[in-house]
Automatic annotation (TrEMBL):
Annotated TM spans: none
Protein name per the record: Probable nicotinate-nucleotide pyrophosphorylase [carboxylating]
CDD domains: QPRTase
A GO term for molecular function: nicotinate-nucleotide diphosphorylase (carboxylating) activity
Organism for this UniProt entry: Caldovatus sediminis
């Protein structure tokens, strides 16, 4: 399935800010001193390891914002599976612009491809089960939209985009509200009919209370697989079930086998290892 690209109006502020941070007060001292102003070059964005491409639009935008005369030919768009040595795109144009934008372009491309690749590894681990892999709000400041896009590119789905698109009642909400019932009842009285309510539960007793209150989803936090199986049986389809808590590609299959609908993983966005992609000079 092809994932629609994010609108350029969302990407440009991120790329501009990153370029301005790198260019600082005097521009690219190294390139401007060494490379003749009229020099032309051809380069290739090349994979150094297997993975999934994501963030190519941001990378190409970085080059074009620095030097509009740079031309790009995309060979492997976002969502493509990569092998070492695969060329993602070739670029040609003024050499100064290619070198000045290189690091900013690769920062976006390597990071977001890392997010997509990590997501794909967990999606593959639970293939054949009903569980979907989703991200969380544990994103890097300012990068939430593009990190969540990269999760979709990797075959995952998105949890909340922010505090304003769903209710997720966690343990501290319950503690301050004085219990599960008042927390749920206050939320239901406040939000509109289009907003779903999810409740985090740590025990089967809490789950029973949540189901009696008719919440839309339950977050089964840090439950072992045997408890997850019992929880899914208790829910019996009355709510969406979501498992979370330090889940890895190695532990995900057993979690998914419990029958949960969703597995949410924070490290997909906050700690995914970058995918090694380089910029190779081609002449």
């Amino acid at each position: 399935m092809t994932i629609p690209s994010l609108p350029m109006v969302m990407l440009e502020p991120l790329v501009r800010a990153a370029l301005l941070e790198d260019l600082g007060r005097a521009g690219d001292l190294t390139t401007d001193a060494i490379v003749p102003a009229k020099a032309q070059a051809r380069v290739a964005l090349t994979a150094r390891q297997p993975g999934v491409v994501a963030g190519l639009d941001l990378a190409l935008l970085a080059f074009r914002l620095v030097e509009p005369r740079i031309e790009a030919a995309v060979e492997r768009p976002d969502g493509t599976r990569l092998a070492p040595g695969d060329v993602i795109a070739t670029l040609s144009g003024p050499a100064r612009g290619l070198l000045t934008a290189e690091r900013t372009a690769l920062n976006f491309l390597c990071h977001l491809s890392g997010v997509a690749s990590a997501t794909a590894s967990v999606v593959e681990a639970v293939r054949g089960t009903r569980a979907s892999i989703c991200c969380t709000r544990k994103t890097m400041p300012g990068l939430r939209a593009v990190q969540k896009y990269a999760v979709r590119v990797g075959g995952g789905s998105n949890h909340r985009f922010g505090l304003d698109d769903a209710v997720l009642i966690k343990d501290n909400h319950v503690a301050i509200a004085g219990g599960v019932r008042p927390a749920v009842e206050r939320a239901r009285a406040r939000v509109g009919h289009m907003v779903k309510i999810e409740l985090e539960v740590d025990t089967l007793a809490q789950l029973e209370e949540a189901l009696a209150l008719g919440v839309d989803a339950v977050l089964l936090d840090n439950m072992a697989p045997p408890a997850l199986r019992e929880a899914v049986a208790m829910v019996g389809g009355r709510a969406i079930t979501e498992a979370s808590g330090r889940i890895t590609p190695q532990t995900a299959p057993e979690v998914a086998a419990s029958g949960v609908d969703l597995i949410s993983i924070g490290w997909l966005t906050h700690s995914a290892t970058v995918l090694d992609i380089g910029l190779d000079h081609r002449g």
